[in-house]
DNA sequence: GTCTATAGCCTGATAGAC
DNA sequence: GTCTATCAGGCTATAGAC
């Protein structure tokens, strides 16, 4: 008695295909620049069929966004109070840079949203992100107070890490155009490690 | 014999109002997210009247972009081969940061375009920007070779300056949300000066 | 579950009176 | 130069057959 493939399995497969396609299209064209048709074609479905799985274009976008954020904040959450301060920060930079290389579309999706004033994400930023940033700023502060790393503004330190690492994903076109044949990710890890090592290594 | 106000003057005034309005709307909603009606309302004109001054939505966008780019690249052009290397770079960082504070909409307009793959600007980047970057990279290289600043990857150095300074304009919503009452531009100049001073000051 | 067909809305751009 | 009215096309979302 061979069972037919579970409908739930088909559903999951199609939902996954839709979200993958949506990531591709939303991240390059933004919310308004994306049409449901584009997503459907990319996912290998018809438009009405896509809308059988998701009630609306916005619903797809929102699901994509909330799914993204957890992964996105994971490296920061991993900043370990019990680790070696400088090494913890350098590892954080390295992980963020790897995420820009491995998940550039996620980075651009997020960038698109923030540059336009975060119309669909301001709540999340004000709550989840803010409390995480407060916690980790305090951690950085304590490391500075203990003389483990140079004293500086902890939030600007975090902003700089985000900005420098995400730049390679968000401005990918520009970076690659200007670098020609050279892969940006060849030299970027060294550059960023040197930068933060010199910035943070304690010097009385 | 009193002349009626020159038509050219009215034209110039309205064209300026349209471009100002377009900057406001395009920079927050992107090209596709912006409607001609929004621009017209913001400029205090009717939609057909706006289209009397510009042939199309895209024409407005292009004029805005080409007008922007000159101003945008000016600080980099000013990098003076005969100045003191470290001071030249620190001044460049400062000027770029001021531009993010004084012209955040221009920065976001540019960011919007690049994040989405620069569909309307790739030629400019490949030509004007690339040749300027080649020229200034060579200059940075010569400063490093002469031991005036620490040796590092000149293009990554430029990318980092762009990324760090523009972040305060492009991610303004996020930055301000996370900083609360504190004005980001209070501490940013010091933070960036310290960062690049430590990065670049020669140490044998 | 998936399709074709289409409703209903919005948008860029034009026509034509004033 | 500026308006009202409107067209033509593209869009999201739904209806209804299979």
Low-confidence stretches of chain A: none
- Reported by name, the CATH topology of the largest domain in chain A is Tetracycline Repressor, domain 2
Structural class of chain A: mainly alpha
Whole-number tally of structural domains of chain A: 2
Oligomeric assembly: homodimer
Residues in β-strands, percent of chain A: under 5%
* Global geometry of chain A: elongated
* Residue share in helix of chain A: over 70%
Q: In CATH, what is the homologous superfamily of the largest domain in chain A? A: Tetracycline Repressor, domain 2
CATH hierarchy: architecture of the largest domain in chain A: Orthogonal Bundle
- Highest-level CATH class of the largest domain in chain A: Mainly Alpha
* Total DSSP helices of chain A: 10
Radius of gyration of chain A from the CA trace? 20 Å
List the chains of the largest interface with their residue counts: A-B, 49 and 50 residues
Q: Helices and strands of chain A, in N-to-C order?
A: HHHHHHHHHH
Largest sheet data of chain A: none
Could you give the count of β-strands of chain A? Answer: 0
Distance between the termini of chain A: 77 Å
Average pLDDT across residues of chain A? 95
């Amino acid at each position: 008695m061979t069972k037919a493939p579970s409908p739930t399995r088909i559903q999951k497969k199609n939902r996954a295909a839709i979200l993958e396609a949506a990531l591709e299209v939303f991240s390059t064209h933004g919310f308004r620049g994306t049409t449901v048709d584009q997503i459907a074609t990319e996912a290998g479905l018809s438009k009405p069929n896509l809308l059988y799985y998701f009630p609306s274009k916005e619903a797809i976008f929102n699901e994509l966004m909330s799914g993204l954020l957890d992964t996105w904040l994971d490296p920061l959450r991993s900043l370990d109070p019990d680790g070696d301060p400088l090494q913890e920060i350098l590892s954080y930079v390295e992980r963020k840079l790897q995420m820009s290389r491995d998940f550039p579309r996620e980075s651009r999706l997020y960038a698109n949203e923030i540059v336009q004033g975060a119309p669909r994400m301001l709540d999340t930023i004000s709550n989840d992100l803010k409390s995480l940033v407060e916690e980790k700023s305090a951690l950085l502060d304590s490391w500075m107070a203990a003389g483990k790393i140079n004293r500086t503004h902890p939030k600007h330190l975090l902003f700089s890490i985000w900005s420098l690492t995400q730049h390679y994903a968000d401005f990918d076109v520009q970076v690659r155009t200007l670098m020609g044949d050279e892969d940006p990710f060849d030299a970027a890890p060294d550059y960023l490690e040197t930068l933060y090592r010199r910035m943070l290594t304690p010097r009385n």
